[in-house]
Amino acid sequence: MSNFVELNNIHFAHGTRSIYEGLSLTVPKGKVVAVMGPSGIGKTTLLKLIGGQLKPSSGSIKVAGAEVPKLARKPLYELRKQMSMLFQSGALFTDMSVFDNVAFPLREHTQLTESLIRSIVIMKLEAVGLRGARDLMPAELSGGMARRAALARAIALDPELIMYDEPFAGQDPISMGVIVKLIKSLNDSLGLTSIVVTHDVDEVLSIADYAYIIAEKRVVAEGEPKQLLKDDTAIVKQFLHGEADGPVAFHYSDDDFAEDLLGGRQ
Amino acid sequence: MESRKTQIWVGIFVVLGVLALSFIALRAASGNTATSGETYTLYAKFDNIGSLKERSPVKVGGVVVGRVSNISLSGEYYEPKVEMKISAEYDQFSETSSLSVLTSGLLGEQYLGLQPGFIDDTVGMLEDGDSISDTKSALVLEQLIGQFLFSQGND
Amino acid sequence: MIEWLRKVGADVIDNLAGIGYALAMLTGAIIGRPTPKKSFPLFVHQLYVLGVLSLLIIIVSGLFIGMVLGLQGYTILVDYGAEQSLGPMVALSLLRELGPVVTGLLFAGRAGSALTAEIGLMRATEQLSSLEMMAVDPLRRVVAPRFWAGFFSMPLLALIFSAVGIYGGYLVGSGWLGVDEGAFWSVMQSSVDWYDDLLNGIIKSIVFAFVVTWIALYKGYTATPTSAGISSATTSTVVTASLTILGLDFILTALMFGG
């Protein structure tokens, strides 16, 4: 089994703030891989690195065998046609209807006739259960519907890889369940490779084939969901079971509290 | 269809723009300044050009035939020398033509009045680079008043 | 002292980097293989958004400014018995100055701020990122049609503004204050020149169009993706664009009419 995405020893910094120091992970073809971690550790950054929107300061990122940070503009754009990303906000184009949103990548990248595009769009919308909402504008959709519409757009071009950025965040339990099911069924029926970045442990572990936990700027644990749940490393336990106290500090790092109170830092 | 309405409006917009341009070009402005087409250059020296400026019109009987293109002082005695561009359309002025600095209205702009001279076999035509020798200077109001008072005093 | 120098240096570097980025953005947007079939409808749509939707404010302000010019000009000129010159006064002020400048300022406020807010919001809602991930260049897809539409529509708006303004001046001067109609137009025609006045005014409005659209797009594209960031980017578009217009207007006027 080949790896579709390979990250090796990535270092990355936003300005002076270091995000990753020596992060490595692999995503096998055709699998659902979960990337979990506490908020604010740059999980979205990870997806943007894979998509080539950001460049690491060192390390290698391979997608479908191509070294992403070294790609010139044109091959990078070609590669991006094979991947798609579901943004946290959905990122639907607000000036187009749901139908046009889903049709957008098809119209941009293919020479298909309008009637063929219509059939494809209807199929994709049916897959996410929004066929009846095709004429609505994004502003008229609920959060869950917007995310499903965005998902329909993401699979419009039948990509090899879909990256989900926090697909469960801010969803009610029902739409959360719908999305969990969708990710799994799309992955199985279309033969996709999926990367799910999230901090909703229970949902993602129910569908993931393999999972990584990122903390402290690198991967701290990895394995199949069952193994991970049994893992008794302090940090894994803290994260998977949602304990307030543990190696991941509740406080953003700062000087000593007592010292600060007494006016240590001016 | 939304895009059809958009297209109609954009059409209206562009047509309005073109209409505005033609309105301004045809109704409000003109290119009859004789400096836009083919021209030839004439020179003339004056004792005093008054408030004549570059781009002041040169008129024949009130019709603009050219414009002043340059004003400088020339010669040992620093005489004002005026360079004019005259429309090539009007190239039949004889060498006996005269030029005077005139004023349009009591307080108006000053311009050059060209008085075409007589034509017979003995006189040639003015050509590019020629000078007009018969010139009358601008009337300076102060001098005029001075002369008037002086002549009154002599009576 | 050294700290002050460091601050000056840092500011200069920041500004230069900003200008460099703006240049890179512009070249990225307007250079490259045009795809007429796809981009022309986008361009037409933006002409609608930027041009047609600004028509009303342009026409109304043009009419009022022309009428005020007629009224003010008349009261000044009539003292010298020169009310015949009302036509050229109205026409010259509109064509040379007010047309391009006021249109530029109104365009910055009406269309420029909307551009900045729209693009800033597209960035904030990850629509630009999402375009990039769909292998569509946001510079060509989003920025380029807006740039060209702004560049194209503002000179047209300036012409419409001047034409309406001249008509407004005529209404007041001739219809109300009794300047002879024939004299109004003929004196105007004899003193307004195609090249000197009309063409120079158009050149001014083209320059302003370029600057305003560019500033608006740049501010939107680099806006901090938060509500505060977008609102400050919008304000900054209007302020920067207006000041740039006024500054450039002085320079252009000096070049065109000063020497």
UniProtKB/TrEMBL annotation, chain A:
InterPro entries hit by this protein: AAA+_ATPase (IPR003593), ABC_transporter-like_ATP-bd (IPR003439), ABC_transporter-like_CS (IPR017871), P-loop_NTPase (IPR027417)
GO MF annotation terms: ATP binding; ATP hydrolysis activity
Keywords assigned by UniProt, alphabetized: ATP-binding, Nucleotide-binding, Transport
A Pfam family of this chain: ABC_tran
Presence of keyword Transport: yes
Domain ABC transporter: 5-241
PROSITE patterns linked to this entry: ABC_TRANSPORTER_1, ABC_TRANSPORTER_2
Name of the protein in question: Phospholipid ABC transporter ATP-binding protein MlaF
Organism: Idiomarina seosinensis
UniProtKB/TrEMBL annotation, chain B:
GO molecular function, one term: phospholipid transporter activity
Transmembrane segments: 6-26
Membrane keyword on record: yes
Superkingdom field: Bacteria
Keywords assigned by UniProt, alphabetized: Membrane, Transmembrane, Transmembrane helix
Domain named Mce/MlaD: residues: 39-117
UniProt-listed NCBIfam families: OM_asym_MlaD
The protein's name in its UniProt record: Outer membrane lipid asymmetry maintenance protein MlaD
Lineage: Bacteria, Pseudomonadati, Pseudomonadota, Gammaproteobacteria, Alteromonadales
UniProtKB/TrEMBL annotation, chain C:
GO cellular component: ATP-binding cassette (ABC) transporter complex
Membrane topology designation: Multi-pass membrane protein
TM spans (from-to): 12-32, 47-71, 156-178, 198-217, 238-257
Molecular functions per Gene Ontology: phospholipid transporter activity
NCBIfam families: MlaE family lipid ABC transporter permease subunit, perm_MlaE_1
Family, per entry: Belongs to the MlaE permease family.
Official protein name in the record: Intermembrane phospholipid transport system permease protein MlaE
Annotated source species: Idiomarina seosinensis
